[in-house]
Design brief:
Blueprint (H helix, E strand, L loop, with lengths): L9 H10 L5 H4 L5 H24 L5 H6 L9 H7 L5 H17 L10 H6 L3 H10 L2 H7 L13 H6 L2 H10 L1 H39 L1
Amino acid sequence: MTSDQIQVGDSILELEEKIGVKSNFFRNLLNEDDWSFIIKLHALFEAACTHLLLFHFKEPQLAKTISRLELSNKTTGKIAFLSELELLGTEERRLISALSELRNKLVHDVRNSEFSLEKMVLNFDSNTIKNFAISYSPFETFIRKFPYDETLKLGYDDEMLKYAAVDNMITRAKQTPKLHIWVGAKHVLNNMIDMYSYSDYKNWIKSEDLLNDTNA
């Protein structure tokens, strides 16, 4: 599948403008070779996480410091900060961590430029392909947690649960590993975009609390 067959939506286009990359940068990653796809997708998440943190803290002076933080360090990285701020969920962090691990294996040796995702997954044993499939399908993982509850009238119906089944994710990961990663990444980016308004809400609550403390 090429980028010309896919639309990403206005939100991701707006995010690309915010972080300073060309329009449809994310969509066009599907046209890249696998090595470039992983390196550039990771760089996109680096920029997106940095921008969201700077937006939340509203301190331009922190730009250099935040940009130098590792992306996926679980205690001092960008995703650790976003986790503590409740701006990035468990499934989203898992995808970014998996992407960072794969990127780090590829980036330091130019000979890896011939890297193939399809060849990689062919060599996976059953546990490894399962972990790969789940790590890069955050939305489907979320769906599986919430089967439909007749009493509460909440949750996902059988059709959605079937779509999100682990076996289906494994099949997609085996057949089109690049698309599998890309679809998962799209979900994470869209969730991050939603967090801008949540960040505004959290900062508003903080301001209200400070004002109330001052007037007390």
